[in-house]
Specification:
hydrolase; Glucose Permease (Domain IIA); eight-stranded antiparallel β-sheet; Protease; metalloendopeptidase activity
Amino acid sequence: MSFFRAGHAAQVVTRAALAAALCLAVGSAPAAPKQTARSKQKATAEAARAGIQQKLANLKKEISRTEAQKEDVADQLAESEEAISDANRELRDLAEEQDQTNRKLTDLDAQRTALQETIDAQKKQIAKLLKEHYVAGNEDRIKLLLSGDNPNRINRDLQMMAYVSQAQAKLLESLRQNLASIETNQQATQNAKDELEEIADEQRQQKATLEKEKAKRAELLAGLSKKLQTQRKDLTSLQRDEERLGKLVDNLAKIIREQQIAAAAAAKKRQEEAAARAAAKAKAQAERERIAKLNAANAAKNGKASTPFKVTDPIDDDEPPKPAVAAAPAAPEPAEEVVLAPPPPDGSFDKLKGQMVRPVAGQVVARFGSKRGGEGVTWKGVFIRASEGADVRVVAPGRIVFSGWMRGFGNLVVVDHGNDYMSVYGYNQSLLKHVGDAVKGGDAIATAGSTGGNEETGLYFEIRRLGRPIDPAQWVKF
């Protein structure tokens, strides 16, 4: 009878609930914390950047190849100044990572508290149900079956008991899910704590490196001070610096143009392949429809099933049609290019003319076109005297196309703004961005310094269009 089946179902569900409760009481051993993926991700990113930096290093060597083989005095500072820049950038990145991880830990702690409160409430509810079940046992159900009451009422009451047991089972399943969630939370919390320990260890290493390189640079400066003063007055040296920067900007512009052409060609090829696939698919579909109509007409005409027509040359919808002539041998893979972020829209730089904020807080002490070191050499940008370590901010949206040490300009950043505009930031103490990074106007990209043998602390700033320097005062509100 149905009421016996209902009673049996209720007993089964209740026994399942008891078994689940016992499993929860026993619990499970906590899983070992997983190793963080942070180190692996960093290694992958550094490997990718290493290829970019190697390309830029080769570019700098090519630019300097036509110069005299005698090294510049400031070259002796290059290793320490690059190391100081790297250490400062790493410390800044680690501080940001630390803040993000601490915020993540705060969120995880709040989630864990909410989950624990829910679990405690569910455990109390289950304990109460188990106690009631233990006290009542099966008496209510047996009494109901033996009461001799109306079978329809008995069946209805047993169905109700089954629903109650099912609700208890759902409660236990919800508890299981919450326990699994809190275990996942604990693992994520442990992972975040492990990451914080990694970050703290890296910070200690970078701080030690920074202090060591600062001391090394100070010692070198003390020994090279007279030679550096003489070099700064040497017109030939200043002219070579200007030529070197001009060649760098020209070569970067060439790379950008080549990448744009390659990207346009790749996009066109993808469009042609997509169009070919769509045409092939449409042709195949039309052929299927034609054959289906022929088969339907043939069946209607003969009044019985007949040998159907078939598509003699089916076309794979997922593959483009094969060319009639054998394809030419594949061209060799092009050499790896500098990976760059998408450029800003053309015209965005022009719209900011006269509205750009100065790249660093300080006093302009050398202006575009003024004499520099004597006759024949003039400033192609501006020099802004600023305190060491002051944030250098990009004047407009763009992408980093050069970030490294260069003779005559120390730690140098070049930003491409699209439409053949570039901005140049030299003498920096530290470089905060990598080649390929997209930047918004006002983003900190470096810190002011006196690298490259410069006498004063500050920033050298240029704007170039089609490789030629233009007066920054027409663009930036100094």
